[in-house]
Design a protein that fits this description.
By secondary structure, this protein is mostly helical. Helices cover 75% and strands 0% of the residues.
Amino acid sequence: MTLDDYQQAALRTINPALDDRDRLLDASAGLAEEAAEVLGLVRKRTFQQRTIDPAKLTEELGDVLWCLAVTASSLGLSLSDVAEANQAKLAKRHPDGFTRGPESWSRAAKE
């Protein structure tokens, strides 16, 4: 499945009662909410030595992806365009891959 295939499938499950403005707000707020749920699982793993159920993590990351897909669509963007633009930004920022050191931090801060 491609990102755009997923995005089209996700759009079939949006709430039809929402207008464009409310759909954007619902999806973008959901993105923050679902990302916080992922963070909660990672926090429990890191600081409380709990195991993360892979199925639960997959479910929450899927919810993040759904919200991202609907947010992007509401703004006229495809997930593949978002991914390509991000990849180009990362390649420019880290042309040789990520390096640890103050020189890479200062370069990234300027971009």
